[in-house]
């Protein structure tokens, strides 16, 4: 939203740090490197002075990067956060302060060298449109930290007229009190989970693409490269089985090392703390540091993810189900990550601590207020299984795809089209399909305890979501043709947080209605009474 708003005088507009003039030109040159390289190649191949065109392009790029400092200002009033940017197309982005969900503070290597940080304010609107995100790149590290406190830690004293100046510092905590309580910290032993995240597969693709592009653009003949030629000759002398084993071994080692290195770089110095003002603060990163602050009053639950390989070594990762945050951003889960891949017991313990301090939907509760019910149950209590009908449905869906493919391959082989080995491979994978169907059934489960809906599903990535019932804004009961024949249904809890909806899959219809009725008492009564009157 744009337009004039009431707030501080225009003289209260603040500028970014002047040191950003050393950051943005470098970033713009790196971003424009392919285009600049194209200018150099085009100018040289046409007999012109390609280096002059390249220098002119670099100069324009640097100038464009410097203009951002002159054209970007921001201010914070008691009601709004405003960012003004642009030269020819002037734009003023205005966000109400009560819409602020999170504040991310990121420092790349160049930022850290210059003592700078990038601040991104997460709101319900800025996360939906890339061009309207409220970003400030870059502020001094101290100013970024103060801005985070200014936007999220608004104590009652700080909201008085005398304390609502944009430059006002937060009210200090009472003497002898600790402003932050540590909930979790990175431990050296957690590095063992790095190889099982499989993030190194991305590195394999990037390295492979880079080498392929380099060979293609440089017209390099690999047969003339001595080490490559000797390695290929040694590899070609092996048998087929040994070649496959060698490729698999090299790939596993490379992916494991790359995944471990990526784990250390992404999650080094990880720390999760809780502020007395009612916020969770996550910091992580060895080279690029990122700090995310989440308001606890926006928290609606937690999600524990266990990918197959990580589950095999009893590991899991934890993320927050909260309003105003993007979800599903890979392993990092956007800005909602509360714990990187770590021991499963540690994830459950941290989830219990986070939920124990989460306030109710009507407002934050005092930090010392005791819980009326133990919050261990939603995290570790046994879940209700979904019965034999759900088991049959898992096997039917698994073999309903595998068996037709197997029959088609067999028919094609009988007609003399493909070789026999695809059919043999598909037949050999039948036990794997059966194990996958059985594991998907074992992962199904649900519970309703301590005011939380607990649902679990998945095999390749098993997920357990603990969702506060007062955060559910609606229920949907869906039944496909095959589910109706099996007496099953899928219950979907709709919420404004996290993935927006969470399912209890392939549960009996009566159990689905019981869950919805017990989770939100009175919400379904008119529909159930109408259904009863119609049946009579």
Summarize the structure.
41% of the residues lie in helices and 24% in strands.
Structure description:
The protein is of the alpha+beta class and 536 residues long. Helix 2 runs antiparallel to helix 3 and helix 12 runs antiparallel to helix 14. Strand 3 and strand 4 form a beta hairpin. 41% of the residues lie in helices and 24% in strands. It contains 17 helices and 20 strands.
Features:
globular; seven-stranded antiparallel β-sheet; six-stranded antiparallel β-sheet; alpha+beta; 20 strands; 17 helices
The averaged pLDDT comes out at 77
Question: How large, in whole angstroms, is the Cα Rg?
Answer: 28 Å
Please count the beta strands (DSSP E, at least 2 residues each). 20
Q: Which structural category do the helix and sheet elements fall into?
A: alpha+beta
Largest sheet: 7 strands, antiparallel
Percent helix: 40-55%
**So what's the overall shape?**
globular
Uncertain stretches of 5 or more adjacent residues: 1-11, 125-132, 155-177, 328-333, 361-375, 530-536
Helix count equals 17
Distance separating the two termini: 52 Å
The neighbouring-strand order within the major sheet is 7-6-5-11-10-9-8
Q: Approximately what portion of the residues adopt beta-strand conformation? A: 15-25%
């Amino acid at each position: 939203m744009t337009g004039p708003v009431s707030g501080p005088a225009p003289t209260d507009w603040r500028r970014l740090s002047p040191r950003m003039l050393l950051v943005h030109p470098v970033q713009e040159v790196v971003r424009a490197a392919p285009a600049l390289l194209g200018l150099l190649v085009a100018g040289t191949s046409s007999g012109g002075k390609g280096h002059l065109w390249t220098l002119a392009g670099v100069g324009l790029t640097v100038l464009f990067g410097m203009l951002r400092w002159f054209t970007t200002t921001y201010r914070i009033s008691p009601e709004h956060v405003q960012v003004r940017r642009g030269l020819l197309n002037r734009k003023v982005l205005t966000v109400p302060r009560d819409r602020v969900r999170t504040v991310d503070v990121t420092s790349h290597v160049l930022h850290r060298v210059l003592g700078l940080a990038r601040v991104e304010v997460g709101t319900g609107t800025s996360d939906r449109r890339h061009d309207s995100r409220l970003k400030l790149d870059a502020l001094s590290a101290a100013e970024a930290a103060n801005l985070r406190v200014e936007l999220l830690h608004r104590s009652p004293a700080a909201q008085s007229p005398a304390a609502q100046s944009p430059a006002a510092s937060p009210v200090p905590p009472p003497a002898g009190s600790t402003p932050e309580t540590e909930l979790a910290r990175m431990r050296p032993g957690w590095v063992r989970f790095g190889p099982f995240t499989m993030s190194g597969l991305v590195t394999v693709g990037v390295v492979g693409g880079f080498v392929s592009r380099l060979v293609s653009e440089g017209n390099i003949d690999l047969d003339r490269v001595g080490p490559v030629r000797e390695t290929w000759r040694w590899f070609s002398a092996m048998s087929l089985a040994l070649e496959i084993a060698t490729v698999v071994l090299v790939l596993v080692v490379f992916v494991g090392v790359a995944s471990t290195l990526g784990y250390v770089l992404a999650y080094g110095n990880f720390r999760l703390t809780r502020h007395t003002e009612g916020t969770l603060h996550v910091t992580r990163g060895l080279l690029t540091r990122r700090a995310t602050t989440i308001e606890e009053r926006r928290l609606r639950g937690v999600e524990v993810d266990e990918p197959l390989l990580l589950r095999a070594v009893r590991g899991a990762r934890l993320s927050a189900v909260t309003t105003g945050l993007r979800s599903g951003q890979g392993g990092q889960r956007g800005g909602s990550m509360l714990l990187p891949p770590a021991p499963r017991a540690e994830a459950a313990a941290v989830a219990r601590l986070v939920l124990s301090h989460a306030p109710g939907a009507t407002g934050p509760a005092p930090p010392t207020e005791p819980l009326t019910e133990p919050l261990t149950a939603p995290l570790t209590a046994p879940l209700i299984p979904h019965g034999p009908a759900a088991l049959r449905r898992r096997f039917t869906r698994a073999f309903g795809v595998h068996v037709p493919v197997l029959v088609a391959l067999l028919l094609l082989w009988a007609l003399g089209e493909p070789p026999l080995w695809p059919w043999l491979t598909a037949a050999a994978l039948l036990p794997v399909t059966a194990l996958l169907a059985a594991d998907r059934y074992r992962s199904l489960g649900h519970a309703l305890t301590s005011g939380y809906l607990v649902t679990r599903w998945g095999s390749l990535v098993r997920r357990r979501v603990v969702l506060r019932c007062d955060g559910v804004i609606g229920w949907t009961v869906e039944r496909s043709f095959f589910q109706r024949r099996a007496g099953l249904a899928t219950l979907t809890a709709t919420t404004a947080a996290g993935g927006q909806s969470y399912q209890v899959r392939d549960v009996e219809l009566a159990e689905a209605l019981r869950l919805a009725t017990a989770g939100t008492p009175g919400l379904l009564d008119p529909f159930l009474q109408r259904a009863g009157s119609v049946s009579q």
